[in-house]
Amino acid sequence: MNRDEDGSSPDDPTLNMELLYAVHDALKTLPSIIHKTVLKSIINALLEENRMLYASDEVRAMFMLIQNPVFAAQSSYTIFAHLLRQMVNLPSTDHQLLVTWFKILEVEKLRMMVRHLQQFITIRQFPPADKSLPPLSKSRWWIPMATKTLALINAANNASNPPLLDYSEFYNSALDHVDLMQDYFNWQSPQRPGQFAYCQYPFILSIVAKRIILTKDSEQQMILTARRSLVAKVARHQAPQIDIFFLNIHIRRSHLVSDSLNEIASKQKDLKKKLKVSFVGEPGLDMGGLTKEWFLLLIRQIFHPDYGMFVYHPNSRCYWFSTDQEGNLREYNLIGVLMGLAVYNSIILDLHFPSVCYRKLLSPPVVPPSDSARVGVVKSPTMEDLAEIMPVSPPGQ
Fold first, then answer.
1. pLDDT at res. 371
2. Helices 142-159 and 107-125, axial angle in degrees (round to 10)
3. Which residues of 149-178 are buried (b: 16+ CB within 10 A; e: fewer)?
4. 233 neighbors 261 (Cβ within 8 angstroms)
5. pTM of the entire structure?
6. Start and end of every HECT domain (predicted)?
7. Do the Cβ atoms of 140 and 195 come closer than 8 Å?
8. Are strands 246-251 and 274-279 parallel, antiparallel or unpaired?
9. Which residues does residue 234 pair with via DSSP β-bridges, in sequence order?
10. Are 389 and 356 in contact (CB under 8 A)?
């Protein structure tokens, strides 16, 4: 669309935002008959949804409409769903424009939009008993439209420095109670390309939901990996031993790091099995305690200042990589493997890295919404990231 004709630009929707907010605030106090009139006007505008030409005025209109407080009412959800579909079906260039415009909204206005969309998703996912909503068979598309619209707002939030909203405000804790593993399988299934899944939009899933998915997926992968080992043994006419079902790590306490490196390097094919640790010369079965002790001792030794791999910055209370150990990639790789094994085996590690380190782990993007789209783009490190690692102390400290 040509934005030069009316003076609009990627950074400015050329709207009187104060007037828009005043109208919205006034709508909240008006009687329901006025709300119905407003909704009828929106319906008339949406009746032309099959038209493919989107002028700049229409994109601005959607930007205004999605902020309308009348959509907080459940009775308006059918109209709201059609508005969301219109917005999702916009070209990618207009999506980028909307993302830029969302960034200029007042924080409370943005928060209100997020809450309206989250409530819309929750009520459609768990419909009320009074059957006030259309049947799910006819309105299943509501949830993908709302989630994709929420993704635009999340992209705007992530592009703001600092973010306008805390990432946890995009969590929908009600989704903790859906069949998360079925959703995960739908996302992973090559037989169902293009099918919507919440896992495709991880920003909406709470920490609880992500933990459930990771734990269940790890358990299933452990079973599958152990089963393959058993089948391979039987195929070679060999008697299977119980040890083939586990990732068995045998460690000497006096050679903790070197033994761990060698064991992990020699057992790459078994990393997805259930971890089982034993200390050489010490009796006892690993029922989980030895595994936790191994992680604790290994992390404590590797992160000790005398070991030289990491430097602790007391002002930021986090670790950063030592410049004296740049060539020691094997042991840094061990840290990465340990983090992966800990997550895979549901072990919590007491690691304190700055946020830029975790953002780096998210690059390249791993959950694109489609084969041609990119999400999770990680911003380049900034001076703010450096300040987070090594903040300047006030004089006298």
1. 44
2. 150
3. bbbbbbbbbbeeeeebbeeeebbbebbbee
4. no
5. 0.72
6. 267-391
7. no
8. parallel
9. none
10. yes
> Is residue 338 within 8 Å of 349, Cβ to Cβ?
yes
Return the structure tokens found at 45: 């505008």
Q: Per-domain residue ranges for the chain? A: 17-170
For residues 120 and 146, the answer to whether their CB atoms sit within 8 Å is: yes
Q: Could you give phi then psi for residue 390, rounded to 5 degrees?
A: -130, 75
CA distance 337 to 302: 13
Task: Tell me the C-alpha distance between 358 and 197, whole Å.
Answer: 24
Q: Quick one: DSSP state of residue 277? A: E
Task: Identify the three-state secondary structure at position 347.
Answer: coil
Amino acid at 109: K
pLDDT on residue 99: 92
CB 295 within 8 A of CB 347: yes
Angle formed at CA 171 by CA 169 and CA 175, multiple of 5 degrees: 150
- Measured CA to CA, the distance from residue 68 to residue 340 in angstroms comes to 45
**CB atoms near residue 358 (< 10 Å):** 10
Report the SS3 class of residue 275. strand
3-state secondary structure 113-178: HHHHHHHHHHHHHCCCCCCCCCCHHHHCCHHHHHHHHHHHHHHHHHHCCCCCCCHHHHCCHHHHHC
Residue 357 amino acid letter: C
What type of residue is 241? Q
| Residues 97/63, Cβ–Cβ less than 8 Å | no
Q: List C-alpha distances in Å: 71 to 76, 172, 395.
A: 6, 19, 52
Structure tokens at 137: 């068979």
